[in-house]
């Protein structure tokens, strides 16, 4: 029988006591975590409104008025707060050269259309002559077969018929060539029209010019934004909801906006968009170095058509769960 010395007994008792203490502490922490989780679920379940900081934007988003090419601002057609229709000119760069190139292309196209008209008339005339020559040749052939016409006369009418047939083929080839040339000139015209269009900033849709950040005579580079544009279609409040409450937000829920820290209802609306994924806080992060690991869900609330709140306003958005 193996004996255990008193020193070893003390060590075993100490180890056993430590294990029992750790087990007891671990169980207590597990109970606390479970209790905290249950409490959190109860809080989320009992929430009937969710509040988030929101920014007011057009439903169609704010669009930049950018230029495709470099140049000098020659004219400004619309100013801030002015309503425009789709395609209306807002800003023009210098475009005299492009305008002249377009006019030249149009002139060449007009000349080519006249050439084609002449080629069509020539072909029609040759086809009439060919038809007459064929009739003459066929008549002479019948007379020759009946002994009423000479070989020389038949040969002359055949030669005339063959020559006119070649002339018709040549006239048709010329017409096809001129028509292809017309297509090339039409492409040139479209290209020059596109070059001219690049010198103008036009309204992408019906809406309002929010700002014009340039002046006549200013030199601008390609890709430069010269202002902002708001498409027609109403306003929306864009907010971010913490991931804890994100699953409770659904399209169709009622909402309203109020000043930050205030109680006055500025406008009412309904949720019409909820992001399908969670992302890092971005819309209202105060600092770029913010290391908060919580995720948020973007939610958009379409405001009533009579809302008159300013675009860009930062407000509180209250979403009703029930």
Fold and architecture overview:
The chain has 322 residues and is of the alpha+beta class. Helices cover 43% and strands 26% of the residues. It has three helices and 15 strands. The strands form three sheets. Strands 1-10-14-12-11-15 form a six-stranded antiparallel barrel. A four-stranded antiparallel beta sheet has the order 2-9-7-4, with no helix packed on it. Helix 2 (96-145) runs antiparallel to helix 3 (151-197).
Keywords for this entry:
322 residues, alpha+beta, six-stranded antiparallel barrel, four-stranded antiparallel sheet, 3 helices, 43% helix, elongated, disordered N terminus
SSE order: HEEEEEHHEEEEEEEEEE
How would the global form be characterised? Answer: elongated
What is the beta-strand fraction?
25-35%
Profile the largest sheet. Answer: 6 strands, antiparallel, barrel
Structural class: alpha+beta
The strand count comes to 15
> Kindly state the mean pLDDT as a whole number?
87
Tell me the distance between the termini.
75 Å
Signal peptide: 1-24
Pfam families: HH_MFP_RND (PF25876)
Coiled coil: 116-188
Keywords: Coiled coil, Signal
